[in-house]
Amino acid sequence: MGAASRTPHVHHRRRDSHFGDPVTSTTDRTRRPTALPPPDYDRLPALTAALAARAPAHDRDASFPTEGIALVHEAGLLTATVATRYGGAGAGLADTVRILRALGAGDPAVALVTAMTLFTHAAEARTPAWPVTAYADLLAASATRPALVNALRVEPELGSPVRGGLPATTARRDGDQWLLTGRKIYSTGAVGLSRMLVFARTEPGAGEPVRVGTFIVRAGSPGLTVEPTWDHVGLRASRSDDVVLDSVPVPAGDVIGLAEPGDTPGARPDPVTGAWNALGLTALYLGVAGAARDWLIGFLHERVPTALGAPLATLPRFQSAVGEIETALIGADTLVDALAARVDAGDPEAAERAGAAKVLGIRAAITAVDQALALVGNHGLTHANPLQRHHRDVLCGRVHTPQDDSVLTATGRAALARRSAPAASATSAVSTASAPPNSAVPKGN
Q1: Which residues are CB-neighbours of 334 under 8 A, at least 6 positions away?
Q2: Residue limits of the Acyl-CoA oxidase/dehydrogenase middle domain (predicted)?
Q3: Does residue 26 have a pLDDT over 60?
Q4: What is the pLDDT of residues 414-437, one digit of tens each?
C-alpha cells in the first residue's frame, strides 16, 4: 500500500505502551546482570493453543494482542535471546526458530512482534552496540513486564532502506539531546512498543557532515504520535501503524551506530543479522502453514458426505493431497532448522544461504495453504473457519526483507560467477601449457 493511497486518520497522541514502562536508570544496572524469567520451551504447545483461541477476535477487530504478548513474556520467551552476561538465557537462532514457529501457528501477529524483540536482543548479544545504561534500563523493564522493541526504518518516500537511500527523518542536535522529526510507516507493534529504534539522519551543521544512525525513542516521549493507519488484509493484529515524530527528544547518548553514510546507508550490517531475520521469519510463516494443515486434517476427518458414508480422509485423492502438503512443509522446516543450527555453529555458508531458504520456505508455506483452500472449497473461505485467516496471514511472508527479487538476483549472480572462475582458470592453464619453458606465467587466478 503506497503512501499516496493511505487513508487519513485521526491523530492519536502516544502516551505510553500497552504494558507501561516507568523510566528508571541506575548505574548499578550497568554492572550487574538483570534477573530475567527463564524461557520455558515446554509451554510452547499450550501457548500456541492459547494464542490461537484469541487470534480470530484480534484479527476481526484489528486489535493489538496485549494478552498474547503477556503470555509470551510470562513463559520467558520474549527475552530468550538476551545474552547470559546480561542475565538472559542466550538462546541462539535454532531456539528462536522453534519459538517463532510455535507462536506463528497460534497468532502470527504475536509472533512477529516477538520476533522483532528477540532479534534486537540477539544482535546485542553478538555485537554490543547499545549505550550501556540504555540497554540496562531496557533489561530492567523486561524483568517485570513485556518490553517490546522494534526498528522503525521504512518511510513513505524511502521504502525499505536496505535498498539504499538516506532517511527523510532527521535528528537535530539541541544541547544535550537530539530532536527527531519525521514519519515511519509499517511500524510493527507500534502501540505496544517500549522502545522504538528510529533510523534517521542528522542535520548538517557548521563543518559537520550528515550522519545516519539509530536513535532510541522511549514510549510516551513528547511529540510522539501513533496514527492508526494499519488496515491490512493479513496480520491485522500486528498494528503496523504509522509513527509520527515531531521534535521528539532523545538523550544525546542514546544513539546506536551514528556514522557517515556509506554507499547503502540502510543496508543490514552483516550476513548473520540477515540470516536471523530470514530464517526466523520463515519459521513464523511455516507455523501459519502448519496451523492450516492441522485444520485441514481435522476437517477431512470430520467431514462425512452422505453419499460417501465415510470421512473424506479415507479417500486416496485427499490422502495424496495432504501428503503433498506435508512433504513440502517437512522439507522447508528441515531446511530452516538445519541452517539455523549451522548459523549458531558459526558456519558462514549457512548464513549466506538463509535468503534462499526464505524464498523456498515462504513459497512452500503459501503453496500449502493455497492447496488446502483448493481442497475444501467454500468451507475454507468461510469466516467461521480459520483457513481464510491463515491464507491472508501467510501471504505477508513475501513482503519481509530479504524479498524474492533481491535474493534471486544475488543468488543468480553468485552462481554465474562460479561458472566464470573455472573458465578463467582453464584459459590460464592453456596459456601456461603453450608458454616457453621458464616463462613467467601466473599459476592460476
Answers
A1: none
A2: 155-248
A3: no
A4: 999 987 665 555 444 444 444 443
- Give the tens place of pLDDT for each residue, 306-326: 999 999 999 999 999 999 999
Burial class (CB in 10 A: 0-12, 13-18, 19+), 363: middle
Q: What percent of the chain has pLDDT over 70?
A: 84
Say what the pTM is.
0.87
Domain boundaries defined on the chain: 23-148, 161-259, 271-402
Q: Quote the cell numbers at residue 67.
A: 494478552
Grid cell listed for 244: 509520527
Comparing CA positions, the residue from 370, 362, 392 lying closest to residue 287 is 362
- Of 85, 84, 90, 89, nearest to 31 by C-alpha is 85
Q: Do residues 51 and 107 lie in contact, with contact meaning Cβ atoms separated by under 8 Å?
A: yes
Mean pLDDT of the chain: 88
Task: Considering only residues 16 and 6, tell me which one the structure prediction assigns the higher pLDDT.
Answer: 16
User: Three-class SS of residue 70?
Assistant: helix
pLDDT at 157: 85
User: Exposed, middle or buried, 74 (CB in 10 Å: 0-12/13-18/19+)?
Assistant: middle
The C-alpha cell at 51 is 494464542
Asked if residues 193 and 17 have their Cβ atoms less than 8 Å apart, the reply is yes
pLDDT for 339-355, tens place per residue?
A: 999 999 999 999 999 99
Instruction: Give ∠ CA 186-144-131 in degrees, rounded to 5.
Output: 65
Rg (CA), the chain: 25
Architecture, CATH, for domain 23-148: Orthogonal Bundle (1.10)
With a CB cutoff of 8 Å and minimum separation 6, the contacts of 225 are 11, 12, 13, 14, 243, 244, 245, 246
The label of the residue with cell 503459501 reads: 366
Please work out, in degrees rounded to the nearest 5, the angle formed at the alpha carbon of residue 398 by the alpha carbons of 395 and 400. 120
What is the number of other CB atoms lying within 10 angstroms of the CB of residue 377? Answer: 9
- Say whether domain 161-259 belongs to CATH 2.40.110.10: yes
Q: How many residues in total does the chain contain?
A: 445
What homologous superfamily does CATH list for 271-402?
Butyryl-CoA Dehydrogenase, subunit A, domain 3 (1.20.140.10)
DSSP tag of 29 = G
Q: Distance between CA atoms of 81 and 22, rounded to whole angstroms? A: 23
- Measured CA to CA in angstroms, residue 39 lies from 35, 79, 89, 106, 277 at distances of 12, 8, 7, 18, 20
